[in-house]
Predict the 3D structure of the following.
Amino acid sequence: MPIYTVERTILELDQSFNDGGHIIYVNGTNRDAKTELGKLMHDFACREPDDMYYDILAKKARYFKKDEEGVAYMCKALEDMRNEARDEVREENALRMLADGLPIDKVAEYVGLPEERVRELANSKSA
């Protein structure tokens, strides 16, 4: 099916949970060009902007894939995401080392974080 709608249920009571949340899954493999949703799924998976159905998506994809400014923007965004993920891992490792009783200066040296940041992590852990 192109779309699956999921509602939460209290199994023991066989009643809807009614928390206001609704989950809709879109089947990305549905690329039937006879439907608007199929065309959209095609465009989301499309590598070449010139092969897309929707001009607005093609225009943005062309900008981020072909235009020098757009490519630079995407490269910067991906680099920022990579750095953020790396810092999160460093902080998780620092917290584990602190929990094992390693001194702040050694933790900073081993994980590559400034001592001040490790000190902040140590203080937040004890708060």
In short: Residues 68-127 form one domain.
